[in-house]
Amino acid sequence: MEDPTQSEQASPAIQKRIQDSFDRQGLMAHLGARLAHVGPGMVHIVLPARPEVTQQHGYVHAGATSAVADSAGGYAALTLFSEDSEVLTVEYKINLLAPAAGEYIEPIGTVLKSGRTLTVCQLEVYGVQGDGGRKLVANGQQTLLRVNRPEQ
Which residues lie closer than 8 Å to 93 by C-beta, 6 or more apart? Predict the structure, then answer.
């Protein structure tokens, strides 16, 4: 069955803007994360479970889990901002609900309220098995600040 959360795509211009920004993030490249879905107010990221991102028991490390969840929420917010805007995280809280096990983890950032200055996002992270089985391994909430894009 098709995942209904992935059916609506952002416009090609917004997808390119998000992908270009994502590609400039050294940490996401270092971790091996990639964008999986960019929709209006919703972004999915995939982080393959590799030895470089795991902790001593073989689960994806909480630091890696938190970092990709933070990026998923930030980019979800950015899909709703004008081209002259950027986003910075003000705060986020994440609850680790279960060991982050699976072939990969999939953080999903969803905008709950987009404001002129502050935006609030829901963060969900799923452990995804090779057979497609999904388990919620973390959830959280994030507050983001809209800022003007710096002059280049």
Answer: 140, 141, 142
